[in-house]
């Protein structure tokens, strides 16, 4: 069955990826939505009657979820036409101000979880499939105050770029999405915070447009997509300026 798999589908950008897949890919027969809050996924499924939606409740930061995903894939043998590897978590704040559990949760989900999803889904993808890896502008330079998150995002950007080259041989197109601010559960618009923090003053992207445009770029074979001129300029700065300078700019 022609299938789309979207992780982190219970809120924010993942919901807009679902919308974009439903509207732009009528040939997709089944969509798997993965996140911890299964009831949210089931509610979302109710909005779309013309496509089969499977709500898969998994905690991708937990080791046992990889076995569960493997079993489901082996049982259903989907033809994965679209993979959106999007579930992540961000806990900002000083390194010492976070517990080890919080730091490990970010590493487990953002690094281990996304690697597991890509590796487990790979055998079910084929020529013509696309894969999106949601990374972040945080991957362009280290960020003091977001050390673990920006490190995990830099891992994702590297992994996605490497797989873009590696999977070309199989005809699978991988696109790394590197967005800046988006008003989601992870980063809600907060007027009070915006007046105090640098990050809150930066432009917010339209998640609907980001999701739809990312799929288009992935279809065209683009390796990386950074939406918005401001963030593109930041990406270029990250390529030409030393990290020591970038870190003075981006310090939270
Ligand atoms: N918002 C921004 O400003 C921004 C900027 C740059 C990049 N990004 C990236 O954009 C992507 C989407 O984030 P978002 O902004 O849409 O944030 P969001 O609304 O908080 O969505 C995060 C999604 O990840 C899922 N998730 C979290 N922990 C999980 C776990 N342990 N196992 C499975 N799923 C888990 C959440 O679902 P459950 O809670 O139900 O599990 C949710 O569906 C992320 O990769 C994020 O890093 C966001």
Characterization of the model:
The protein is of the alpha/beta class. The chain has a single domain, classed as Rossmann fold. 46% of the residues lie in helices and 17% in strands. The chain contains nine helices and seven strands. A seven-stranded parallel beta sheet has the order 3-2-1-4-5-6-7, sandwiched between helices. Helix 5 links the parallel strand 5 and strand 6 (173-177). The longest helix is centred in the middle third of the chain and has 22 residues, at 100-121. The mean pLDDT is 95. The structure holds NADP nicotinamide-adenine-dinucleotide phosphate (NAP). NADP nicotinamide-adenine-dinucleotide phosphate is lined by residues 8-14, 35-37, 40, 58-61, 86-90, 109, 134, 136, 179, 181-182, 184-187.
